[in-house]
Amino acid sequence: MILTFEKNSWTLAMSVTDSGISFETGRFGGLTVLPSPVFHLKLEDTSGRRFTLDSSSGWNSVTCIREETSITFRLTAPAQCGDLTVVVTGHTDDCGISWYTDVINRSDTCSVAEITYPVPAVKSDVLHFFLPDCCGRAIMNIGKDGFRRSYMYPGHNMSMQYFAWWGNNGGIYLGVHDPDACMKTFTVHAGENEGHLQIGFPAIGAGCPANSFTAAGSLRWEAISGDWYDAAMRYAAFVHTSAKWLPVKGRPDTPQKFREIPYWICDYIPNSEQQMEARPMTLASVSEQYGKDYWTDAAIALKKRLGTPVAYHIYNWHEIPFNINYPHFLPARDTAKKGFDKLKEAGLYLFPYINAVSWEMDDADEGFEENFTNTGIHGAVLKEDGTPMYVPYPQVKASGKTTRLAPICPSFLHWHRIIE
Q1: pTM of the predicted structure, to 2 decimals
Q2: Residues 6+ away with beta carbon under 8 Å from 331
């Protein structure tokens, strides 16, 4: 059976069989929708075997309920994981579709690791792409030049959760409207005038059988008549009406002054002898060209010139070397305390930098009674083989070892107690 949706600005045809569903064809602007599964699943059974499924085949039962402005698909009991159901619901309007995904897993032998949001593959003789890399990149002629990358959101580069494909006659906006900005994976592949995008949602309870969950937010498809700018306006509308991370909707314990800051700066306090050569590399390359009081004097002078409130993110305020012996930040250096007083008197708002995710794995070498070996490891992120995950850094300890920072669970109370 072929289901069709026809609006003035977009069309879509979907295939529904006894064993699966898929996108068949359609039009958004000047783009053609290509055949592709509605979703992909990654799973693991209790023996450790990993396998994948998609929506197009292999399901024991497929039901479809269509109403005036919605369509709901229910896929159940694939052969590899019998007590699994995926429910995909699309709400349609004149501009596009909003997709919602639920996973109901009652299997005691199977765990869902990830599911992808419904995203179309597209084709056009002229194909451009918007990638939310840093402040955003418009990649022109991506269909001919080719492109293949994977990302994690949120991250250093992936600051937003929306994309767009377009050609000479408009295209499609693809935005994850997730107010909580939950983690996602992005995979982009383009070439031969085709564009393929997968947006994955890491499953809640992955690794445990019977992990039911709802993919965060919705995946919005919307026809656009222009280019990346039209897509940006769509995402901005979502952010300003729904995003929980905006200052006005953020944490209630955030001081009012930090909600209204128009200008932020960051720098670091020059090293003490005890801190050796360990320093924040990117900041040091600039600040070390100036004198020891540059970190205070330049900030005060800038605030006077701007005539606005200024918040200051200050690195290296602690006695321990940078990236070494975390989380034993306290006490603060005397140099930092004196400089803080000077900056506060000048009206700057101060925000001392703390690496709030890591425990340095060799802090026992420095004689800390509560250290990673006897305490931190119990809150550390572990690899599948049970060993701690860590990130190597270039800073070198007094022992000659390079720094290894292990990510810690944000709720680990021992970490909080050390820095309070």
Answers
A1: 0.81
A2: 318, 319
